[in-house]
Specification:
alpha/beta, ten-stranded mixed β-sheet, 12 helices
């Protein structure tokens, strides 16, 4: 039997299966005013949203592409990307049995219904450009918690003003080129509102699956946690591998009220033909807290830097992230924190792993304004290179505008010790298993912050990626 030696030989059947999408509705490739209007018509947008889409398209055409400060995206050609794909589902269902069989089979393989039955307060499932399933437990809805698709909420008189006041206010369509793109063609995503004083002790989850070849996914997640409340929101993403570029340019906007906490956990396991250009941002009010838990394991190229804006006194941000870059991957990840009020604090703790020529770059930006006296920030990033052909970089930036602040940064980059590998092999382990164990141990400090099912998924992915890492 031939020994597996390269990443492309790895069996990723859990994610790489796909179904024929020939019966789905698609817009034409590329990006034009007619295509944007076609998407708006499909969505039955209110007038203000249609106008916002057209304004975003105008800004997309005006804003230049990133100027070589990060990984190259020269293989991404917008004229070849399909920006809207409607799956073979006539409407969003709230009963799992009513979801079309091929789509249901996809999510069954990924474990979504099982997770819902066991441990979740509600689930949303998106397939290509549309939500196909959304459900929230009755006891959660009875607390006044709103968990639905953003498009339905936008047209509901009870929530339209709330959405209009918050949609793309944290991430304006002037922010960067792909924020403008998102504003023009966004589709799907979730809306969550947790009322004042409500603390959910079980999480909500959304899962995003891109099935169509050469397509983009542009979901928008908007979460508002009112004062004195708590929410844990879990997000997962995956896609099968194709020989053409796919694009993910979603957007996440999180509003955390006074004395509230939002824990936002996400695993991005896109296929290695994906350009992942996602934008995530949170605004935290007085005594509030945002907890980011991030795992980046897929895509050909990633630009991903969740940002916390600490707007209220004593507000806090914690970021825990793990990135694994294998062959053919250039993952540029990190986070940003803006301290804009007194006595705010932030903690960043990350692990990055690279192998088979993969490139992993950690970027952090800490801004402490003159309003943020008494603030504290601590950043710790550690990188592990499994071989001598991979690369890992750390690029910290600090902008401190007050003398009354405590800021620290620590970075470590290293390789697997041959002595440790030899020791484990002397205890009966194969070299492959020894290296996988070392990598898991390195990532464990961050990985243990992940929800259980995703921590298991992370360990399985590391085991798969380590196959063929020798020789």
């Amino acid at each position: 039997m031939k020994e597996k030696t390269v990443v492309s030989d790895i069996d990723r059947n859990m994610y790489d299966f796909r179904f024929d999408d020939s019966d789905a509705y698609k817009v034409s490739e590329g990006l034009t005013p007619d295509i944007v209007l076609q998407i708006s018509k499909e969505k039955n947008d209110p007038e203000w949203m249609r106008d916002f889409r057209l304004d975003s398209l105008k800004k997309f055409n005006e804003i230049p592409f990133p100027d070589n400060w990060g990984p190259s995206i020269e293989g991404l050609h917008m004229e070849n990307i399909i920006t809207y794909v409607r799956p073979n589902a006539n409407r969003m269902e709230d009963s799992w049995d009513s979801v079309p069989e091929d789509i249901k089979d996809t999510f069954e393989k990924l474990g979504i219904p099982e997770a819902e039955r066991k441990s979740l307060a509600g689930v949303g499932a998106q397939y290509d450009s549309e939500l196909v399933y959304h459900n929230v437990k009755d006891e959660v809805a009875a607390l006044g918690v709103v968990y639905t698709d953003l498009e339905s909420a936008m047209k509901d008189p009870k929530y339209e003003k709330m959405i209009k006041d918050h949609f793309m206010k944290l991430v304006p369509n002037t922010d960067h080129k792909f924020a403008a793109l998102h504003g023009a063609v966004w589709s799907g995503g979730s809306f969550v509102y947790v009322p004042k004083g409500v603390k959910l002790d079980i999480p909500l989850q959304s899962y995003f699956r891109l099935n169509a070849k050469g397509a983009g996914q542009f979901e928008h997640t908007l979460i508002i946690v009112d004062d004195d409340a708590y929410l844990h929101f879990i997000e997962g993403c995956s896609a099968p591998k194709y020989n053409v570029a796919n694009l993910h340019a979603g957007c996440v906007e999180l509003y955390v009220g006074k004395n509230s906490t939002l824990r936002y956990s996400t695993i991005e396991n896109w296929s290695k033909n994906m350009y992942n250009l996602n934008t995530k941002r949170a605004k935290v009010e007085e005594n509030g807290k945002i907890e980011w838990v991030s795992g980046s394991f897929g895509s050909h190229v990633s630009y991903l830097y969740p940002m916390s804006v600490l707007a209220g006194a004593n507000s806090r941000s914690e970021f825990s992230g793990v990135t694994f870059a294998g062959g053919g991957q250039n993952l540029d990840t990190g986070c940003k924190v803006v301290h804009n009020a007194p006595n705010t604090s932030s903690v960043v703790n990350t692990r990055s792993i690279s192998k088979d020529g993969g490139i992993s770059t950690f970027r952090s930006a800490v801004v402490i304004t003159k309003n943020a006296k008494g603030s504290k920030s601590s950043t710790s990033c550690q990188s592990l290179m499994v071989d001598d052909i991979s690369r890992s970089d750390t690029i910290p930036a600090m902008d401190i505008r007050t003398g009354d602040a405590d800021v620290g940064h620590e970075a470590k980059i290293g390789r697997i010790s041959d002595d440790v590998v030899f020791y484990l092999m002397s205890r009966g382990m194969s070299e492959e298993d020894a290296r996988a164990l070392i990598v898991r141990g390195f990532a464990d400090n961050v990985g243990k912050e992940l929800p259980l099912e995703y921590a298991v998924e992370m360990n399985n992915l590391i085991g798969l990626e380590m196959k063929g890492a020798i020789g």
